[in-house]
Write a structure and sequence with these properties.
By secondary structure, this protein is of the alpha/beta class. The protein has helices at about 25-35, 65-70, 85-95, 105-110, 115-125, 150-155, 175-200, 210-215, 215-225, 260-270, 275, 285-290, 290-300, 305-315, 325-330, 335-340, 380-385, 390-400; strands spanning about 15-20, 40-45, 75-80, 100-105, 130-135, 200-205, 245, 250-255, 320-325, 340-345, 350-355.
Length: about 400
């Protein structure tokens, strides 16, 4: 029993977010805030909308792309051409009623439209304005476009990803975008909290390159500490041994020996007492330094038994490990189901649509129930009426292509 009554509404109930970003980083941030209860209005171009609406297949029965579905649930869609005088006026009226703006305007375009951070805060002094771009608002690349693949290449991430021999590899998902969205959500929440004390707004400047580099944590820090560029490790770990993918008698298994006691436990479970008793392999530092000796000997041991037997032995010995699964296996796993990481909602026609679940679990307040990502411009009239526009004014804007 909690010593207090739980909240009736999610943590961000009452917070209005204007999501004027496209593709992934900004929309992913907006979706996180929507999951926490914010009213997120997605601003899109009339006629075409967010680019990702057309990025497929696959598409749902009602024509929503899986890509758009992944980062736009629980939002409302407003179509608006902010490049027109009427559209710009409405945009600023929206900002007057919003707590947060998320945008990924080009730096030069934002300044021409009067939407640079200083200009926004001068006109909307309580706004938390989050600007996301490839390279941030300063530096020689400030006006250059930034794409996740290019960012992975430039940030060093591809340089440490992939097999030891052969070309560098990108991560299999647009990781720089996702990480930037997470950094953006964290910064926005911090600024909303600070605004309670200060009473004024804030401008957040995030570059995908900065976020991708910062997220490489211990590997990037290893370079700064040693001055040596880390070599690609493939499915191994730069600073822990054995911590990698191994072939079994009938498949593959990831072995995560994170400390010396786990090493000793592994050796016992594997029936390889000679490894555990070898003083040269006693500490992780020794095993890393003698990687070329340790890993082949562990690999030889791992090939002796089938995967199921390794799972049994390693589980009983409390040695961290994992079987490699594809999405079918992951979404079918009982742990995934127990955590609600697949949820089924209905599209406007009543067809079932499976979504990735919200990973945030709260005690003391609910999270917002997931809702189908909006059809393009579905809530345009509703949002404009909330601003006080009449039906005739909305009709005129629509006739002129502003909405």
């Amino acid at each position: 029993m909690l010593p207090f009554a739980t909240d009736a509404v999610p943590p961000l109930a009452g917070v209005r977010v204007l999501d004027a970003a496209r593709v992934l980083a900004g929309p992913f941030c907006g979706q996180l805030l929507a999951d926490l209860g914010a009213d997120v209005v997605k601003l899109e171009r009339p006629g075409s909308g967010d680019d990702t609406r057309g990025w497929g297949p696959p598409f749902t029965a009602d024509g929503t792309s899986a890509y758009f579905l992944s980062c736009n649930r629980s939002k409302r869609s407003l179509t608006l051409d902010i490049g027109t005088p009427d559209g710009s006026s409405i945009f600023h009226r929206l900002l007057e009623t919003s707590d947060v703006l998320i945008e990924n305007f080009r730096t030069d375009s934002a300044e021409k439209m009067g939407l640079a951070p200083e200009q926004l805060l001068a006109r909307h002094p309580r706004l938390v304005a989050c600007s996301i771009s490839g390279f941030g608002r300063t530096g020689p690349l400030r006006d250059a476009p930034g794409y996740d693949f290019a960012i992975q290449a430039m940030s060093g991430l591809m340089g440490i990803t992939g097999p030891v021999a052969g070309p560098p590899f990108k991560v299999g998902v647009a990781l720089a975008d996702v990480l930037t969205g997470l950094y953006a959500a964290t910064a926005i929440l911090a600024c909303l909290k600070a605004r309670e004390r200060s009473g004024h707004g804030y401008a957040i400047d995030l570059g995908l390159l900065d976020c991708a580099l910062a997220a490489q944590v211990n590997v990037a820090q290893a370079y700064l500490t040693s001055g040596t560029v880390p070599l690609r490790q493939g499915n191994a770990h730069l600073q822990i041994v054995p911590y990698e993918l191994f072939e079994t008698a009938d498949g593959y298994l990831v072995l995560n020996v994170g400390n010396d006691s786990q090493w000793r436990a592994f050796c016992v479970a594997a029936g390889a007492g000679e490894l555990g008793e070898e003083p040269r392999f006693a500490t992780n530092r020794q095993r890393v330094e003698l990687r070329v000796e340790v890993v082949p000997r562990v690999a030889e041991v791992m090939r002796r038994l089938p995967t199921a037997e390794w799972e049994k032995r390693l589980s009983e010995a409390h040695v961290p490990h994992a079987v490699v699964r594809d999405y079918a296996g992951t979404f079918a796993h009982e742990q995934t189901a127990a955590r609600g990481m697949k949820v089924t909602i209905r599209d406007p026609a009543g067809n079932p649509v499976d979504l990735i679940g919200n990973p945030v679990h709260l005690t003391g307040a609910p999270t917002a129930p997931p809702a189908m990502p909006p059809r393009l411009g579905a809530q345009t009239d509703d949002v404009l009426r909330e601003l006080g526009l009449s039906a005739d004014e909305v009709a005129a804007l629509r006739a002129n292509g502003v909405v």
